[in-house]
Amino acid sequence: MGKLIIAIDGPSGTGKSTTARLLAEKLNLPYVDSGIFYRAITYLLFKNKIKPDEIKRIEQIAKKINLEFKDEDVYLNGINVTKEIRTLDVTNRVSSVSKIKEIRKIIVEKLRNYAGSRGVVMDGRDIGTVVFPEANYKFYFFCDLNTRAARRQQDFLDLGHKIPLKKILLELKKRDELDKNRKDSPLKISDDAIELDTTNLIIEEQVDFIYKRIVSANNMLNNEL
After folding, report:
1. Could you tell me the domains of the chain?
2. Pairwise CA distance, residues 157 & 155, whole Å
3. Helix (H) or strand (E) holding 119
4. 163: which residues sit within 8 A by CB, 6+ positions away?
5. Mean pLDDT, the chain, integer
6. Which strands, in side-by-side order, build the sheet including 31-33?
7. Which terminus of the chain faces fewer neighbouring Cβ atoms within 10 Å, N or C?
8. Nearest to residue 111, comparing CAs of 93, 133, 89, 90?
9. 3-state helix, strand, coil in the chain (%, to 5)
10. Which residues pair with 70 in a beta bridge?
């Protein structure tokens, strides 16, 4: 298929990260969850009590950040932070941090470097619109808010955190508004993205939907050559 860049965008709780990871395995491509980069920076700022207006310090942290992905674990500067970056403290702050344009500029370059010569499957909120506007395939996931909240609640339970559903609903609404209305790289649907409602789909169905689209498109292209 040559170098493939597949962008999957959408709000939290739509299943895009798990879908992207499994799709990457199926296509034998690298996988990157762009949100991990912003979560890692948010975690460092929260841990070191750095305020969002300390731009110079934040830029220094963003430039030096080193992330490694081993199976489903995330290592930040050599330390496993898989659970730490998924806490409610980080989740509630990540949108405020990710809207800082200086951070976005640095992270976008880091994300582009991950594609290399092979390509990549990447999910986030601005992958198809900003990071890879020329991606071979673009998908946008959306889902009923209550379903998203239930999924997010289960994610927290898996990490050992019992969070009330009402609280998660409020935080998701708040985050959606921040993501959609931020000045730089807002969450929006690319004009050439394929939309998918994941409300009543299991992960395997989501992966299958994208995989078939890609294989079908490549078969058509090969037949034309």
Report:
1. 4-208 (3.40.50.300)
2. 5
3. strand 119-124
4. 88, 153, 156
5. 90
6. 31-33, 119-124, 4-9, 137-142, 194-197
7. C
8. 133
9. 55, 15, 30
10. 73
